[in-house]
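User: C-alpha cells for AraC family transcriptional regulator, please.
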Amino acid sequence: MVTSGHHRTRSAPAPQWAGVGTCTLSGTDFAAEHPRPRRLPYHLLALTTAGHGTVEIDFTAHRVRPGTLLWIRPGQALRFGVEPGLDASLVTWSRDLLSAAEVSGVPVDDLPGPTRWQLAGEDEDAVITEVAQLGVDCARHTSGAVAAGLLRHQLAVVLLRISLISAEDRGLTSSSEARTFARFQHDLEGGHPQSRRVEDYAARIGCSVRTLTRASLALTGRTAKQVVDDRVALEARRLLACTDLSVAEIGRRLGFGEPTNFGRFFHREAGMSPGAFRAEAAGPMSAEAADDAPDIGARVPTQRLAAD
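Assistant: Done. Predicted C-alpha cells:
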C-alpha cells in the first residue's frame, strides 16, 4: 500500500522483455509526495486492490476504490493522488504489441476511449483473476518465444474481457457514422498539429463537412470543429503540464505561428492563460472527482491478490 516514499523503488512499470510489464502501485514512484502529471509512451491498466483515492487522467480526476479499473492510453497525462492505503495492480504493454487479430473488437487504438470501470459480476470478476495470473507469469518467465506468446495471449484475454464489460454501451449509432468518426479520430491524432480545418479532415476521409459533423454530433454531442479544437487544446494542456517547453514553442508545435494567437485560442478553450494553466497543473490535484460508475461495493477477493 502507499505509505511512505522509501517503498517506491521503480520510476514506472515500463513493458518488459516480452512487451508486457506488471507491478504494484506501491512499488513505483507514481504516488510521489508531490506528483506532477506525466505522459507514458505505452498503455497502462490500473486495478485498484486496496484503499480509496484519486487518479487524474487528462486533467479529469477519477475516484478509485477496490475493483476500480482504469485504462490510461499512450500520451495521456497521468498522476496518482497520495492517499494512505491506496494500492493497485499495474499492467503495461507496448503500443504495437498486439495484432488486430489477437484483440478483434477491442478499441486498443481508440486513444480517447473508455477510461474507467467499476468491476462487479462474474465476467468482471474474471478480469481480477486474469490480471493476477498475468502478474504471476510475468514474474516467472523472463525469456523465450513460448513465454512471450503466453504473456501476449494473457494480455489479449484481459483486454477482450474489458471490451465485453462495456459492449452494451456501443451500438447506439449507425455503423456508417461510427466508421466515419473513427477515421476522423485516427486522422486527427496525427494531423492536429498541421491543420485545425474540418474541411481538410473531411477531404482525407472522402466525405462532406456536413457528414463529418453529423457523425461527430452522433458520437460525442460535439461538432466536428469542436472536436478538432478539443483535441488541440488537450495536447496543449498535456505539453504545458508534462514538459518544460516554453509557451511559444508549444504554440509552434501545434501550428500557431504567433504566440499571441495560441494564447487567445488556449484562453478561449481553457478559460485561462497557458501560464496560469501550467501553474495550476503543478499544484495539488483537484478535490473534485468524476465517479462515473455506481457504487456497488465491489471488492477484490484477497485470495486472488496473493501473487501481487
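User: Anything notable?

Assistant: The chain has two domains: 5-170, 175-281.
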